[in-house]
């Protein structure tokens, strides 16, 4: 679980407006941070099946958000992919 300060930093970096916490870009950025932390947890705890299922759910949610963003606003999608370094 990411701490509140780190989450606020991510939100402020990717927010579209001042009070933005629910845009797709912000949600993808927060999900990416959670996915990275859970991946590190699973490297040391290989048999944690519940955490693995949660990880797969988060990856699926992020994938759907990115597909929607790609369909509606490709420039924003490309910038987000580049800033989060998701694809090479």
Short description:
The protein contains four helices and no strands.
Task: State the separation between the terminal residues, measured CA to CA.
Answer: 26 Å
Helix/strand structural class: mainly alpha
- Fraction of helical residues: over 70%
Largest sheet: none
The mean pLDDT is 94
Description:
- The chain is mainly alpha-helical and 88 residues long.
- It contains 4 helices and no strands.
- It has helices at 4-14, 24-44, 49-72, 74-84.
- α1 (4-14) runs antiparallel to α2 (24-44) and α3 packs antiparallel against α4 (74-84).
- The radius of gyration is 14 Å and the shape is globular.
- It starts with a helix and ends with a helix.
- 11% of the residues are buried.
- The model has no long low-confidence stretch (mean pLDDT 94).
List the helices and strands and how they pair.
Blueprint: H1 4-14, H2 24-44, H3 49-72, H4 74-84
Helix pairs in contact: 1-2, 2-3, 3-4
Descriptive keywords:
88 residues, mainly alpha, 4 helices, 76% helix
């Amino acid at each position: 679980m990411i701490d509140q300060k780190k989450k606020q930093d991510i939100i402020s970096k990717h927010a579209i407006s001042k009070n933005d916490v629910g845009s797709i870009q912000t949600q993808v950025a927060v999900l990416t941070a959670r996915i990275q932390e859970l991946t590190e947890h699973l490297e040391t705890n290989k048999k944690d099946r519940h955490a693995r299922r949660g990880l797969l759910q988060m990856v699926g949610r992020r994938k759907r958000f990115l597909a929607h963003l790609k369909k509606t606003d490709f420039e924003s999608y490309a910038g987000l992919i580049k800033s989060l370094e998701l694809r090479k």
